[in-house]
Structure prediction request, 492 residues.
Amino acid sequence: MLTLGIETSCDDTSMAVLRDENELLSNVVSSQIEHSEYGGIVPELASRAHVQNIVPVFRWALGEAGVEPEELDLIGVTNTPGLIGSLMVGGAFAQALALALELPIVPVHHIEAHIVACLLEYPDLELPAVALVVSGGHSSLIYVGEWRKYEVMGTTRDDAAGEAFDKVAKLLGLGFPGGPEIERLALEGNPAAIPFPRPMLATADFDFSFSGLKTAVVRWVEQTGPEGVQEQLTDVCASFQAAVVEVLVEKTARAAAEKNVNTVLLAGGVACNNALREALRDQIADRARVLWPQPINCTDNGAMIARTAVLRADEAVGFGEFDVAASQALT
Amino acid sequence: MSASARNYSRIVADSGSMRDLGAAFGRLAPDGSVILLEGALGAGKTTFAQGVGLGCGVVGPIASPTFNLILEYGGRRHFTHVDLYRLTTASDLDTLDIDTVLSGDGVTCVEWPTLITGRVDSPAATLKFEVDPRKPDVREVDMSFRGEGWSALIDWLAGQT
Prediction:
């Protein structure tokens, strides 16, 4: 069985072709195309970019997989949550394809797909599990009792973890996305140099808050002045990252203990952060197996959508029965 | 657009009071109004907007919309939370269909609104958030109101002093 996964919920247009459950034939993201033969343009944002990218990405994904459109058996496409205009581009493309090729479509929840991405590389992973999903737009702890059944244990009350990384990076004059830049500089810095707050570390719930931490960095930058910030750039990066990581790891460890699981999954773009991975594994390794996908399957990608579509193939709908939603809870 | 602007200023002691101020806007701002929130990172814009959502009767968390750009909530009143932080050019606004968003019912908050100043013709409020570096919890909020329907909110503000 060949499944096409389509992801357009935010900035990147991505598609993948998956054979059966785990044999990934291609996984293409629009930001890779920029200088390729397709000459795709990658502006900063949203639906117009998806409109320009979606056909080149489709051709590239099929070309790399060596698959003709007529050979496809199933389409998976993100239908929630995300920017409505962006979701509609992927949804409309999926519907056109479904009509032309008489294919069924599986609407896929973006957050579920981030978790299911772990299955691509660890098909034997043991449930139940606790999943920490951290990205530019999401920070959630989710209990996965069995596949397709989720309990959101906690979520961010303000800024997402990745958003905090991006905003602090911009504040420090670093590039975008901010996570990799901060992580690189933090390697040279002292994580204990500046005592940034650990928001909500002590609360009994599983919610996060990163807005106050961001504000603490803003205040520190104002008080320190531009020269001092440059002198202490590696220390401020290391100290900020340490604060984010400590809160994420501590709450994840507590969630894993409460649910008594043997598996902890780390997913979403921030899962690429090595400091987070190592701290999580250090703290939890004696209690649970800690797994994360390789970087391309952590950031938004078509492969995770295709894999989730296979998982939910019995929920496929036909042309005209598909709809998108800006925000819909994971259940 | 009404010609007369009305200006108010308020010292807000902490984040709880900021939420209370936002909640008053959520309850009392006129239907279809747009609230523009200006101020630096960490100045309290999202905290205020969370209060507006509470005032609109939104149940559940109201997170930062920076990544998703637009988040909408059903409540007693419809609440739309927009954040243009990531946008760099006015042409990006068209891809968001921003004029439709701004003409929605209920209450709409817009953080980092520089790109849309001049595009708003609903009843509008502009709030500027200032931080006093000597008092890190305290914010000064300067408010100006345009258009009709703000009297209930302005009466509430007057009653608070």
Residues 15-28 of chain B form the longest helix (14 residues).
